[in-house]
Amino acid sequence: MEGFKSGVRLCYRSRRSLLGIPGVKRLSCHSASQVGEEKPDAGNLSKMLDGRRSLLQAGQPLPHTHPHLVEPGQVTSGISREEYSQRRECLMKRLGQEEGKHHVVILPATPRRYMIDKIPYLYRQDTDMLYLSGCLEPDCVLVLHTLPGSCAPRHNSVMFTPRHDPAQELWDGPRTSPSAASEVWGVDTGLPLTELTRYLGHLEKDLGHPVLWYHASSPPNPELHHRLQAWLAAGRQAGTASPKSHIHTLRLIKSPAEVELMRATCRISGEAIAATMRATRAPVAENHLFATVDYHARMRGADHLAYPPVVAGGPRANIIHYISNNQLILPGQMVLMDAGSEVGGYSGDVTRTWPISGDFTGAQRDVYEAVLEVQQAVIATAAHRPTLDQLFSAMCAKLGKVLQELCILPLSYGDGQLMRAAYQFCPHHVSHYLGMDVHDTPLMPRNKPLSPGCCITVEPGIYVSEKNTEVPSRYLGLGVRIEDDILITEDGVEVLSDSCPRHPDEIEAIVGEDYK
């Protein structure tokens, strides 16, 4: 029982430590990384002390209902009302630079999804909707629009939510009512969801054929899209386009508050994997290690894991996205674990490979050290702010050289042949953007130079199939990947996941430590 109590105290202290983030920040629309301090809004703080607010109910944590998660002035953990407002303003300013005087943005929430009849999956909000509103509830729609007689970035923000439904809330819990939307999310107005199409009809008349920004090709809420079809088919808009590329451009560069959340989630991800190393001894089931990393992430303050982890023992490490996690890992084998936590809507993504018996074999250490050498070279290159594609080229060039040193590739290969051959042993990109999603801002090109405030992964690997008859037999079946999360800074890079050991000597020192 004492162990359980100490674990609970660890979780509480860890989560509170994440909330030491400036409560009120103001973003610049020119760059989300340019942030200046403002005094806290005294009106908002006084409302927090108003007894009437204790009666406010919502479908997500609030400062007075979950003070261990959300601080006064924040909508979600670590992100203030002011920052969400500035994100909306920055988007409308970008859209105002496009053709057309008036603009309307429609962002639906992701609907609740069910695994079987009446049993829902864990809810995850559409990321763009979350970024602009902080709304964590289904069945809502955020509408942003310019004002009659004025141009962007001046705009109105309206959140449409379902009306109070006691029968539904008996099963799913409280929801934020239209009348509470402004207080919960900081939008200008809250209206019933049933008024959405009527409101849009009035906007068309008032704004005179505005440009509509709505992701119609792959809507996050098909049911809502069906309801909007007649209105969209009327064609009274000046044009329709997806706002996603504009939103992803804003999401790419992290604000100081976002950087703190990224530091927290990447630190927790690394610590959870390190704790799993300590709890490893041979033989072990892959799903036991899955449970261990999940437990340690949550006990350190994570909301949950950011994605289904890869826990691949032995030759299964050659399956890049192996998530079955249902085999036994035998003495002498390694395990490749790719796992990350989610904290306040921001994701970590860390990979380590370690010997479950505690000591690398000679061949295992050779491959591991080769991958580590490649990773450190790529991280050093990232400090010069290349593109992701340039990082990939640097990885292939360096990987080819170390594969020659391992006698896996012939010394006779030239540079071009070497890079092509290296790709056969690491058939994935070395990096991707990281943030609210694990594979963040997918619409951002890989040929864009990195900028301060951008978070990326660096994840080279070497995968040697058991069926490869052209390599030394001691390497057959080995799969190694080392992945860390880095922040591009003005001075270079910051490795956010340094909480997890990566040097082979450090790994050997802690594997199985819980049993020693």
From TrEMBL:
- Which residue ranges does the record assign to the Aminopeptidase P N-terminal domain? 79-223
Q: Does the keyword Transcription apply?
A: no
Q: Which CDD domains match?
A: Prolidase
Q: Which InterPro entries match?
A: Aminopep_P_N (IPR007865), Creatin/AminoP/Spt16_N (IPR029149), Creatinase/aminopeptidase-like (IPR036005), Pept_M24 (IPR000994), X-Pro_dipept-like (IPR052433)
SUPFAM superfamilies referenced in this protein's UniProt entry, alphabetically: Creatinase/aminopeptidase, Creatinase/prolidase N-terminal domain
Single GO molecular-function term?
manganese ion binding
Task: Recite the UniProt keywords alphabetically.
Answer: Hydrolase, Manganese, Metal-binding
Say which domain of life the source belongs to: Eukaryota
Q: Which cofactor does it need?
A: Mn(2+)
Provide a GO CC annotation, any one: mitochondrion
Any single biological process term in GO: proteolysis
Entry's Pfam families?
Answer: AMP_N, Peptidase_M24
Family recorded in the similarity comment: Belongs to the peptidase M24B family.
> What is the recorded name of this protein?
Aminopeptidase P N-terminal domain-containing protein
